[in-house]
Amino acid sequence: MLTAGVTETIDDLSEILALQKRNLKQHLSPAEKAAEGFLTMQFSLSMLKELHDLAPSVVVRDEKKIVAYAIVLLNEGRHSYPDLESMFVNLETLRWKERPLTDYRYYVMGQICVDKDYRGQHVFDMLYRQHRKLYNRQFDCIVTEISTTNSRSMRAHERTGFKTIHRYTDHLDEWNVVLWDWN
User: Fold this and answer.
1) Contact 75, 107 (CB under 8 A)
2) How does pLDDT run across 32-77, given as a tens digit for each residue?
3) Among candidates 157, 156, 155, which has minimal Cα distance to 141?
4) What is the b/e burial string over 143-168, where b = at least 16 CB atoms within 10 angstroms of the residue's CB?
């Protein structure tokens, strides 16, 4: 039975890293990346621990095994992963509904991943429903970036309710900045 919850232990964070490693773009063939999507950023256990201490990540479990995760990345945790600083700097320049994005209470979806064996079973939707359930009183919206070449992820985020608010290129890739408005 699949259940949504949050990370609770160091072992949970280690499970996230194992799932992440299997889905990093450098470990996938071009055909797999096109069909299944991919992850760009590689986190470490210490990074995940720092982020978890600020706000636990959302996970979906099959019994006790983590089969999907969605990392909560608060502004306070931005220095845990230095390669993401350019994303935060960019977000601080954006506008949403004719106001600076910084006028809103938002957090960043640090990374989302569903195990290949569980795709097509609405697990992605479970992750985001749990995010909204846990965090909608504290935040107005959730923001993330998706590689413009990751069409599977873009389609899934759009289906959830995310809208593209900006596109830019940095030293890693070209990104769509997407936002899910909870108001």
Assistant:
1) yes
2) 877 777 777 888 999 999 999 999 999 999 999 999 999 999 999 9
3) 157
4) bbbbbeebebbbebbeebebeebbeb
The pTM of the whole model exceeds 0.85: yes
In angstroms, the CA 126 to CA 86 distance is 29
Q: Alpha helix (H) ranges present in the chain?
A: 10-23, 30-36, 45-54, 85-91, 123-135, 151-160
28, 27, 17: which is closest to 111 by C-alpha? 17
Radius of gyration of the chain (CA): 15
State the Cα–Cα distance between residues 71 and 172, nearest whole angstrom.
Answer: 20
Q: Are 61 and 2 in contact (CB under 8 A)?
A: yes
Evaluate whether 12 touches 59 at the Cβ level (below 8 Å): yes
Question: What 3-state DSSP class applies to 103?
Answer: helix
Which domains occur in the chain, in start order? 2-181 (3.40.630.30)
164: helix, strand or coil? strand
29 has a pLDDT exceeding 80 = yes
